[in-house]
């Protein structure tokens, strides 16, 4: 489990045309350099892909998807996962998805092709990560995405979904950490 990292990349153009990608941390650090190359004009906003790395090595190939939809749904899943439930997030433009299932102190992440209940193929078999690592990193992705979208396509944020689920996910992670710290939650 050491070194598991969750992030997203953003495509600087059309992913179907081989557009360059930039990891979210680098993007936010140098947003002025990239913001004119991010296409936020469509109704779904810019495209991105989930990145899962272990010890610096990518564990799955990027699957382009509208990044606002993807990260918002990951954020929406965090409180449920912290409570020990499983959530599946389907990509909107392919037959792929991710399942995150919570346990006492871990989350198990699976990336699949096909149906969530009967996958055709596991692209990332069940991979455990510490709950606080997963929650903290997903919240960080949400914060970085909000920064990027606010700079390139602020109209996409008017429905408030990203902000709402970011707040709920952050509260769930803070509550989890507090319960662990106080010995209320067994790890």
What distinguishing features does this structure have?
5 helices, 37% helix, alpha+beta, Secreted effector protein pipB2 fold, 4-stranded antiparallel β-sheet, 187 residues, 5-stranded antiparallel β-sheet
Proportion of residues in β-strands: 25-35%
- Order of helix and strand elements from N to C terminus: EEHHEEEHEEEEHH
SSE class: alpha+beta
Corresponding CATH architecture: 2-Layer Sandwich
Q: Under CATH, the topology is which?
A: Secreted effector protein pipB2 fold
Count of DSSP H/I helices: 5
Uncertain stretches of 5 or more adjacent residues: none
Radius of gyration: 16 Å
CATH classification class: Alpha Beta
**Count of distinct structural domains:** 1
Distance between the termini: 15 Å
Number-wise, the strands total 9
Helix content: 25-40%
Overall form: globular
Mean of all residue-level pLDDT scores:
92
- Largest sheet entry: 5 strands, antiparallel
Description:
- This protein has five helices and nine strands.
- A hairpin with a 3-residue loop joins strand 7 and strand 8.
- It is α+β, with helices and mostly antiparallel strands.
- It has one domain: Secreted effector protein pipB2 fold (2-Layer Sandwich).
- Strands 1, 2, 3, 4 and 5 form a five-stranded antiparallel beta sheet that branches.
- Helix 3 packs parallel to helix 5 and helix 4 runs antiparallel to helix 5.
């Amino acid at each position: 489990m050491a070194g598991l990292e969750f992030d997203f990349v953003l495509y600087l153009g059309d992913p179907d045309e081989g557009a360059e990608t930039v990891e979210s941390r680098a993007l936010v650090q140098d947003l002025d350099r990239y913001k004119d190359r991010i296409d936020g004009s469509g109704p779904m906003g810019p495209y991105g892909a989930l990145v899962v790395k272990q010890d610096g090595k990518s564990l799955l190939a990027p699957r382009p998807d509208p990044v606002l939809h993807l990260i918002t749904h990951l954020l929406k899943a965090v409180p449920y996962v912290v409570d020990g439930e499983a959530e599946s997030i389907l990509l909107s433009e392919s037959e792929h998805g991710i399942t995150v299932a919570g346990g006492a102190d871990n989350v198990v992440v699976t990336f699949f092709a096909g149906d969530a209940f009967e996958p055709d193929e596991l692209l990332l078999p069940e991979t455990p990560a510490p709950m606080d690592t997963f929650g903290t990193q997903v919240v960080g992705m949400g914060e970085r995405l909000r920064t990027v979208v606010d700079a390139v396509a602020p109209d996409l944020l008017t429905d408030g979904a990203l902000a709402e689920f970011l707040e709920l996910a952050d509260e769930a992670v803070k509550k989890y950490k507090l319960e662990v710290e106080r010995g209320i939650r067994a790890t």
